[in-house]
Amino acid sequence: MPGPRFTDKIIFITGGSSGLGAEASALFIDEGAHVFIMDLAEKGILTRLGEEKATFFQGDVGKPEDCESAIRACVDKHGRLDILFHNAAQPTPMTTVPFHDLVQFQQIINTNLCGLFYLARIAIPQMQVQKKGVIVATASTSALGGEYGLASYAASKAGMLNLMRTMALDHARENIRINAICPGYMPTPMTEGLGELVKVVEESIPQGRGGDPTEVARAALFLASEDASYMTGQALIVDGGWSAHSGAPNLLKYVPQQFRYDEK
């Protein structure tokens, strides 16, 4: 059985106090890492993870000064930064562009897209000094195509993908790998507002359910690890088959049973 992949690695995680970020933090620690969590609130994550392996920094990734302060604090504490996992995100209101609040639109772009830029511009020089580093960003299946009523969120996540790809090209020969995960629907604090719509969403997923945050976190750990040493500039989709669907109706439901080869 292979040993831990992140022994003594320093992992900087945004949005690490809950949801996907919290599950990823726990998995990183299970594999030997120290995690430095930047989030708006601590939410008891240090009690869960243990303060000997986790550090919390209160900050807003939508503010460049907070991002710089957090990265500097991480390096000051640990002497290095091996992996940056930008996972923090702000959800979008479900509305069309003419009715979208301007301030809220800018906040979503700042958190989701600009946050990656703000963090990378400080983290990459540190990784250049170390001659090695990894960045993983949480994008979304919303980055892969248009989605009804999600203008700001889809735009921010699509922008993240091309920012990720461009940085990956710029720094590939410096031994700095940069990739993204694209989760589909999963039950987290950010998706709690869906209420009864969850059933509608889950019925549209080929596997018939939302993803567990731990399942998606494992994909992030894969990209962060040496198991993905020849991957950079890639978007890894983790969505239960959602994005594999062309959008066409499932006509198989209407084919008479005697003609269905899959049941013979």
Largest sheet: 7 strands, parallel
Q: Could you say what the CATH topology is called?
A: Rossmann fold
In N-to-C order, the SSE pattern is EHEHEHEHEHEHHE
Question: End-to-end distance, in Å?
Answer: 40 Å
- Level-2 CATH architecture: 3-Layer(aba) Sandwich
- Total helical elements: 7
Mean pLDDT: 92
Report the sheet-strand fraction.
5-15%
Number of domains: 1
Strand order of the largest sheet: 3-2-1-4-5-6-7
Describe this structure in words.
Helix content is 38%, strand content 14%. The protein is of the alpha/beta class and 264 residues long. The protein has one domain: NAD(P)-binding Rossmann-like Domain (Rossmann fold), CATH 3.40.50. A 7-stranded parallel β-sheet has the order 3-2-1-4-5-6-7, sandwiched between helices. Helix 1 (19-30) links the parallel strand 1 (10-14) and strand 2 (34-39). Helix 1 (19-30) packs across helix 7, helix 3 (64-78) packs parallel to helix 4 and helix 4 (102-130) runs parallel beside helix 5. The longest helix has 29 residues, at 102-130. It is globular. The mean pLDDT is 92.
Task: Describe the secondary structure blueprint for this structure.
Elements lengths: L9 E5 L4 H12 L3 E6 L5 H5 L4 E5 L5 H15 L4 E4 L15 H29 L2 E6 L12 H21 L4 E8 L13 H7 L9 H12 L10 E4 L26
Helix pairs in contact: 1-7, 3-4, 4-5
Pfam families: adh_short_C2
Organism: Capronia coronata CBS 617.96
Family: Belongs to the short-chain dehydrogenases/reductases (SDR) family.
